[in-house]
Amino acid sequence: MTGFTIKTKDGEKIRFAYYISDAPVTSKAFDDALPYTETFYHAKVSGEEIWTDKAPELNIIQENSSVFIQAGEVVIGPIGPFRNKVIKCMGIMYGEGKLLDCGNIFAKVYDEDLSSLKVVCKKFWSEGFHELTFEKLD
């Protein structure tokens, strides 16, 4: 278990590495939920982010949680605590941004794939929603 890829309908693949030491529970739970396909949208208020509110339901602890996410990082809202505003939400930041509430930061794009991630995510802004498929990294 090292990471995952996202694949677009155009066949673009982007690799991500899990934060095994900082978010081991979240990384394992997400990896166990793969493969996963869902429609993602561009964020309106949180910045340069694509997101969905139909993330895999992870009944796990909050770990490595923050509202401040770096470019290329992936965040997911576990289904608890119930007061959290990002439950079942998942976001991928491609630039500056800030979440509405704390989410578990559990992966980051490979450095050499960051420019591809930015190109893909900017299509969401100009073209609307897109479906992404997440698969285990070989």
Shape assignment: globular
Radius of gyration equals 13 Å
Count of beta strands: 8
Fraction of residues in H or I helices: 10-25%
- What kind of sheet is the major sheet? 6 strands, antiparallel, barrel
Percentage of residues in strands: 35-45%
**Quaternary status of these chains?**
single chain
Task: Give the spatial strand order of the biggest sheet.
Answer: 1-2-7-4-3-8
- Unreliable runs: none
Number of helices: 2
User: What is the N-to-C succession of helices and strands?
Assistant: EEHEEEEEHE
Roughly how many Å apart are the termini? 9 Å
Give the class from helix and strand content and strand pairing.
Answer: alpha+beta
Q: Round the mean pLDDT to the nearest integer and report it.
A: 92
